[in-house]
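Running this now, will post back.
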Amino acid sequence: MRVQDKSIIVTGAGQGIGKGIAVRLAAEGAKVVVNDIDADLGESVVQEIVEAGGTASFVAADVTHSDQVKALVAAAVQRYGRLDVMVNNAGWTHRNRPALEVSEDEFDKVYAVNVKSVYLATIHATPVFRAQGGGSFINIASTAGVRPRPGLTWYNGSKGAVITTSKSLAAELGPDNIRVNCINPVFNPETGLSAEFAGGPLTDERMAKFRATIPLGRFSTALDVANAVLYLASDEAAFISGVCIEVDGGRCV
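Update: finished.
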């Protein structure tokens, strides 16, 4: 059990990559706080984990609101006695289209969910980590922040912000024994946002276009990302901070 008894929050864990992360961590002994804005989805993930013999509970919270993120962190501490890892997975995108066609409201939501959420998690979890002698943030960014594609400009920028912020926080919070890392997945057609990334329905033509840019010749899966999170959350990565792991089959080479 690589994360036995570690208290871990996973945001946006009701489906897709977040669900995969929560399930994988629980299978390795973590006490998982499943977070989502959709209670039905979140509770379903908790039920799946518990039925498999794991430990999990659900906390509804919108990660763009400070009071709700504060309550999320407090719930983890109250339920499991501490908080060891916070996985900032919740994400959003605008539809794949020219930069000038993305509305201000769409822009604001992308940056609120993808960037402000990391700010709020840092604001509210860091005091807990400091008080207990350390902790770990794992931020789910994207290959879009490293090798951006046209049509997703504002999303790409938000993920670039997450990458730079993660590195800066690793330098700033390291003396407090707080590790900060990020993971950059490549396109995953199983996520709820895949059609938005692609700019429409996932036709064979669109899928082939994306797949052709990945040297290993397949898309990422939730399990691929979850395994990277598991490593960074475990004591095996105790001296790893400020890094970004590309889970991308060579896309960023």
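The CA atoms of residues 59 and 72 lie 6 Å apart. More later if anyone needs it.
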